[in-house]
Amino acid sequence: MALPRRGARRIVVNGTTFRWRVRRRPTYDQGMGWTPCTFAAEHADTPGTTLVVTTDQPHPSNWMGHPAEPVLPSDVARAIRHALHTGWTPTTPGSPFRLDVSIPFRAPPSHDPTRGATATTTNVTPPIQ
């Protein structure tokens, strides 16, 4: 899974150039504020395994108006350093390397589908006669 060059930003970490980007439009769950924002990074010259980082913030373009901090280059550099330290090899082909830093992330109670569900499902299809 390679990152598209368009919209990707360059960053140098420990003398190595990487490209990274945040998804412009949130997924449905990110838009509702149920899941946190993610970003991806890869080696700029020899893309191999993509790093996918789950943050502890809502997506900046969420639809519910939840306050969100933008993903900063310093956050990306920190995540890349951490992933390299924990075994990510960016030039080796393979499935995405996932780094989850979302431990403190909590969806707002009023919009969390796993808490306090009071709606009941009913069959809206009329019976066949």
Folded structure, characterized:
It is a single chain. The protein is α+β, with helices and mostly antiparallel strands. The protein has one domain (9-106). The chain contains 2 helices and 5 strands, in the order ββαββαβ. It has helices spanning 28-31, 73-85, and strands spanning 9-13, 16-22, 38-43, 51-54, 97-100.
Order of helices and strands: EEHEEHE
Reported for the largest beta sheet, the result is:
5 strands, mixed
Physical arrangement of strands within the biggest beta sheet: 1-2-3-4-5
Low-confidence spans: pLDDT under 50, at least 5 residues?
Answer: 115-129
Fold topology:
Blueprint: E1 9-13, E2 16-22, H1 28-31, E3 38-43, E4 51-54, H2 73-85, E5 97-100
Parallel strand pairs: 4-5
Antiparallel strand pairs: 1-2, 2-3, 3-4
Observed structural traits:
alpha+beta, 2 helices
